[in-house]
């Protein structure tokens, strides 16, 4: 083999270190490194989400907890919102018809009383004495009547004898006139005494009513919300100038007459009409929606506030509803509430983000003392980004919200090692 041929063969065995060759080899290496990094990252993420934490350490989850609450079926049809107060249509400060000293008060705040039930007693010594005097005068009048009636019988018999003697010319005309006058006088006196009996009976009746006025009774069924007088104090139906005389025993409220009064801006009063469905929420119970309806619109506006007063009837009666409570109302779009709208949807409501759906099945994650429990639920309608749960939850359950795929994977991987932050 020639020397030139050997050199050519050796040159072919050399490594090509040109710029193009080097660049091609570097790109391939970097691509391999990137692919390897992605694979390693995917493995680490999968291990983080799907493998239990080491030593059962709590998963540090920043989640919000929602409390399931009831919500009315028509909660998404509001056309106007307003605020107002619970008022009692039937409320009275119970007082007496006479001025007297309080002897006994038989009621306390919060006590339920019935119509006619005794609330307090006043000093009745003077009334008792006046009643006894009236009874004695009536008895005296009746005794006088009985006496005159006997005298009339005697006068009538004497008149008849004189008439018979006059016929036989044995009695004078003067004797006859005297007998007739005697009989007429006694009859007139009897009539006067009978009138006196009526007067005595009326006087006795007045004294009896005065005595009854010392017993202060409930004018209607209700609840005592204020006790104003104590034994030993003076009470009067009118206010005394010195201010030491009470004008009432207690304040009584008929809880069945509670209603809502709200002030609606006159600019929006055209959205309200009698019979319109209303949903009320007490400030004290923000999760309780109370069905109601408009009673009437007071036909007068407040020029200073540019509002019109609206009366609203509560369609339910509950001990939690108290006079003067603050309330927010929503006037619904339907003019008249139908029977099915008065009732609430069955089940509870939770935020829509608390529901997780997989394989055509719906779940929620309920926080318990032992961790997080996945619970299958049956869904109802969706109202204002709040999902109705018709079965599977109860009012008061604490629900994990803001569910997404990674969070669900964590909860499924380690349900007993969860620290949920509200």
Structure overview:
By secondary structure, the protein is of the alpha+beta class. 33% of the residues lie in helices and 31% in strands. It contains six helices and 23 strands. It has a six-stranded antiparallel barrel. Strand 19 (361-368) and strand 20 (371-383) form a beta hairpin. Helix 3 runs antiparallel to helix 4 (173-212). The chain is rod-shaped, with a radius of gyration of 48 Å. Mean pLDDT is 78; it is low at 19-23, 49-56 and 335-343.
Keywords, separated by commas or semicolons:
single chain; 422 residues; alpha+beta; six-stranded antiparallel beta barrel; five-stranded antiparallel β-sheet; 6 helices; 23 strands; rod-shaped
Please give the radius of gyration in angstroms. Answer: 48 Å
Percent helix: 25-40%
- Uncertain stretches: 19-23, 49-56, 335-343
Q: Gap between N and C termini, in Å?
A: 89 Å
Q: Describe the biggest sheet?
A: 6 strands, antiparallel, barrel
What's the rounded overall pLDDT mean? Answer: 78
Main structural class:
alpha+beta
Per-chain topology:
Elements: H1 3-12, H2 19-50, E1 59-61, E2 65-67, E3 78-88, E4 91-94, E5 100-105, E6 112-113, E7 118-122, H3 125-167, H4 173-212, E8 215-217, E9 222-227, E10 234-235, E11 250-253, E12 258-265, E13 277-282, E14 289-302, E15 307-314, E16 326-332, H5 339-342, E17 348-351, E18 356-358, E19 361-368, E20 371-383, E21 386-391, E22 398-400, H6 405-413, E23 418-420
Parallel strand pairs: 1-23
Antiparallel strand pairs: 2-22, 3-12, 3-16, 4-11, 5-7, 5-10, 6-9, 7-8, 9-11, 12-15, 13-14, 13-16, 14-15, 17-21, 18-19, 19-20, 20-21
